[in-house]
Amino acid sequence: MIYPPVGIRSIAINFPSVIRTNDYWRKNYPDLVAMAEEKSLSKVFSPADSTPSNQFEQVMTPYLKDPFRGTIERRVLGSDESSLTLEYQAAKNAIAAANLSPEEIDLMIVASLWPENILPGNAAFLAGQLGLRGAAWNLDSTCSNAMVALQNATALVRTGEYRNVLVVVSCTYSRFTDENDTLSWFFGDGAGAFVVAPLKPSQGILGSKIVNTSATCGTFYNELTMDAEGKPRMLIRAAKNTNRVLSETAVDYLRECCLGAVAAAGVTLEQIQFFAFNTPTAWYSHLCTQALGIEPERTINLYPYYANIGPMLPIANLYHGAQLGKIHENDLVLVYTVGSVSNAAATVMRWGDVALSTAPATSANLTDVLPKLVLV
User: The Beta-ketoacyl-[acyl-carrier-protein] synthase III C-terminal domain covers which part of the protein (predicted)?
Assistant: First the structure.
């Protein structure tokens, strides 16, 4: 079936004001750093047995000597920031980059990990702030939020139901982790937005493959606790078998989705110019290039500078890939994401004339650190 050309028209990213380096924990939590190998982050990312037993564990091994598991910086919310403040600026910038007005946005899909309220999500609140009059929906697929929202937006524009769909994604993990838990070293915050609209002939989304990740159910979960002031607080926890489940399923999900997406698009992996993997760990990009048999130079690894920003990772990868000149108009691009207890997704697109908003001051200065972002 031949579909009308629809895809990403503009991209914006936005990060909170606080940049937290490893020295923050070395200075404020020296005992925690000294005992890191006995704590949660180490338990999640260590071999399930005494020696590495699969590709995930093999590429992880060089990072085991680092208590921070390859993280260098992470962006976290300041006292006056929230998922809504991050989303608002990203959404506003994406609309402006697309040279559109709020009145021209027919639909906004919002995927917040997590929203400011348990229910409802951020969509209606954000629509009011932006002055939108069209529909505003909430969506959830954890770390695959961006790709699932992209598939939905593309389908709706193709049918003619909507013309300009704004997708807004945020991740605010710092609200759900404690500084004195080493799992907090692994997480960062951020927001991104992109406009999905008709493009030039042959450009846009060519094929996708999405599968559920039910095998990861029970790995990461949320626990309702009480803080020091006796107020309820939700925290992210990891089950005892999380390391085994993640390492044993990673390559299978990757191959099934990526090979399925290129087949649906009628292309091959060799024809893809740029791969945007969601890099939830420092070694994940290496795992992907090794498992798919592609050259490391065809992707980038943002993890050391943003940490795990969940559903924001594919948006940041695409933004910086284009910003650094690694993606050009009409290039074939493959995006892959995997979310625990949700979906793994891959999408192949032919890159259009995508407008990029100005990068925020708290975004990594990747021009200076690019050599470190290519795994060899």
Answer: 263-351
Residues in contact with 289: Cβ distance below 8 Å, sequence separation at least 6, in sequence order:
275, 295, 296, 298, 299, 375
Q: For the residues of 106-175, what is the DSSP string, one character each?
A: -EEEEEEES-SSSSS-SHHHHHHHHT--SEEEE---GGGHHHHHHHHHHHHHHHTS-S-EEEEEEEEGGG
List the one residue out of 77, 55, 294 whose CA is nearest residue 173.
77
Identify the CATH assignment for 6-373 out of 3.40.50.300, 3.90.1150.10, 3.40.47.10, 3.20.20.120. 3.40.47.10
Tokens of 58: 């093999």
CA-to-CA distance for 60 and 287, rounded, in angstroms?
9
Asked if 249 and 339 touch (Cβ cutoff 8 Å), the reply is no
pLDDT digits 0-9 by tens, 101-157: 999 999 999 999 999 987 899 999 999 999 999 999 999 999 999 999 999 999 999
Q: How many helices (H) and strands (E) does the chain have?
A: 12, 14
Q: How many residues does the chain have?
A: 376
Mean pLDDT of the chain: 95
Both tokens assigned to 328: 């050009």
Return the amino acid letter for 239: A
Q: What is the pLDDT of residues 158-177, one digit of tens each?
A: 999 999 999 999 999 999 99
Retrieve residue 226's tokens: 């009480």
For the record, the structure tokens of 187 come out as 């997480």
